[in-house]
Each structure stands twice: as structure tokens, then as C-alpha cells.
Amino acid sequence: MLKIGPAGFNEKERAAYAGRHGLAVAVAGVPFCAPAPGSSLEGVRMCAKLGLPAMEVEFVHGVHMKDGLAKEVGAEAGRLNVSLSVHAPYFINLCSDDELKMKNTHRHILQSAQAAHFLHATPAVFHPGFYQGRTKAECEKRAKKELQVLLERMASLGLGDVVLGAELTGKKSAYGDLDEIIELARHFGLGKLQPVIDFGHYHARIGRIRTKEDYEKILDRMENALGSEYRRRFHCHYSEIQFTDAGEGKHLPIGSDGPPYQPLLEALHERKYEGTIVCESPKLEEDALVMWKAYGRMAKK
Asked: Per the CB 3.0–4.6 Å rule, which of 17, 88, 146, 283 could disulfide with 112?
């Protein structure tokens, strides 16, 4: 049975550890145990009751949150010391030649950034796009062009406090492998665009992750490309995953078939990373708490 209470830390320890090291585990969406109707506001309150320090607000099917509600949720999250990030709609393709699809892509990203601004949330994570017969170089050129326009528009709208997050995509048909999201972050700078490694997607698309050394090789690549600042601006997704030759299939609960979470936590703890691990397990808060408790035990050693 899931118990409501601090996850590995008491309240003072949680606040002190977060302030000292700044690494948190987030639940991907409103916890299942939040009261009906399962709003983001109730989700934030339930995260605080559970002892979870962060939550990803899911806009994957569209941004329908009004500005007033976003402000209310952001204020409550601040009061309860729950940090927020957002996930933009899936319907984004920065590589598209279709004028309407690109117009909608801009709308989805800008709406997500505006909601994130009022929520005091960052980053606003998005899936970059699809190759659809284009070369990697063609997709990179188009994505950089569109992102430049979007970042300038965000600045003009007063949304410059929101960092965009380019997620490592799980399908081999999708633009956004590890090198591609590193290049986007290098080009725009970590203060405007972060690379968001999804370790489940990496496991499915690029190479199997089994050990701490496997995680360290990935982190070394990030740090070598982006410098030590990357350790202070870390945001990732994690879940175990089912996959095929084409890449990701579906997210799985902890204890399925990898990648394992314990060596990831060990690598991040040893390197004193600061940021958020979003647990995307289908068990939501149950597995997020498993990870947060494990991290709490490491912190106390």
C-alpha cells in the first residue's frame, strides 16, 4: 500500500537537501492518488503530502490551462516548495515543410512557454520533430531556424524566463537523437535551450544501459560538449521501457527490463548534479517515490 508521507527525508531534511544539492525526482503528471478531478492544483498539493519535490505538468494533448489557473498553481507550488516543469504537446515538428503544421508547432511551443511562465515552471520540454525523408543536416538547419524565431518571439512576449527543453526522442524515425539535442543546446546555450535526455528512449533507440558506467559515458559526452554548467542545468526523463527495432514501444514500471534506476542515481549523486529527474513510469507517484526514497538514502550516507 502506498503511504502518504515524506519519501526518504523528513520535511526539514527534504528542504535542506534540495537547497544544498538541488536534485529532485518529479512525477510525470498529477499523482493517481490526488482527489478528483485530478487537477494540476490538486496534483501539486498531493506531491507535497507525499514528500515528492517536483511535478511535470502534462500538456501533451494540448495546452488548455487558463492563465489565471496557471498563476494559482504556480503560487501554490511555490508555497509548498514543489518545483514544476511542463511537457509541450506531442504535435510538434520543427522539421516539417507543411506550412500549417509549422504554424501549429509554433503555437504549441508558445502556448506551453506562456503556461510555464505563469506556473514558474522550467523547462518546457518538447519532441523536436521527424525526419520524413530529410537528412539529419536538413532537419538541423530547419529546427535551428524555427527555434531562433520562437526564442525571439518568447523574449518579445516576456517569456524569456522559460528555458526550452529538447527531448531525446525514442523512435529512430524522429529527429532528436543524442548528438542532435546536444547540438541544439550548444547552438542556443543552456540558458535558452536544454538537452533533455530520456534514458528510456536512449536505451530503446541508441544502446542498452545496464551499469553506472553506461550512464557515466552518456554524462561524460554531455559535459564534454556543454561544459560543467550542464551539471547545474540538468533535466531528464526516466522510465524502464519496452522497445522494438524501430525504437521505443511503451514505458514500463520499475523492475521490468531496464534501464535500471539505481546506477543512474548513483552517478548523478557522485557528480553532485542539480536539476530534476522526471519519473515517467506508468505507476506515476508509486515509482517516483521509490526513486526519491532511494536518493534520500544516498544523501544520508
From this structure: 88
Q: What is the pLDDT of residues 129-151, one digit of tens each?
A: 999 999 999 999 999 999 999 99
Is 3 part of a structural domain of the chain?
no
State whether residue 11 is helix, strand or coil: helix
Q: List, in sequence order, every beta strand (DSSP E) within the chain.
A: 23-28, 54-58, 83-87, 124-126, 129-130, 164-167, 174-175, 193-198, 234-238, 240-244, 247-252, 275-279
Say if residues 184 and 193 touch (Cβ distance below 8 Å): yes
Q: Which three cell numbers stand for residue 212?
A: 553506472
CA gyration radius, the chain? 18
Q: Are 260 and 215 in contact (CB under 8 A)?
A: no
Q: Which domain holds residue 103?
A: 11-300
**228 occurs within a structural domain:** yes
Residue type at position 189 = G
Residue 6 in this model has a pLDDT that exceeds 60: no
Q: What is the secondary structure of 157-171 as a DSSP string?
A: TT-TTPPEEEEPPSB
Q: How confident is the model at residue 5, as a pLDDT?
A: 36
Report the alpha-carbon distance of residue 200 to residue 258 in Å, rounded.
Answer: 8
CA-CA distance, 152 to 260, in Å (whole number)? 39
The verdict on residue 254 lying in a domain is yes
Query: Which cell numbers in the block locate residue 201?
Result: 528512449
Helices 136-156 and 99-119, axial angle in degrees (round to 10) = 50
In a domain, 6, yes or no: no
**In CATH, what number is assigned to the domain containing residue 272?**
3.20.20.150
Decide if 175 contacts 128 (C-beta within 8 A).
yes
Domain count for the chain, please give it.
1
Gap between the Cα atoms of 27 and 47, Å rounded: 8
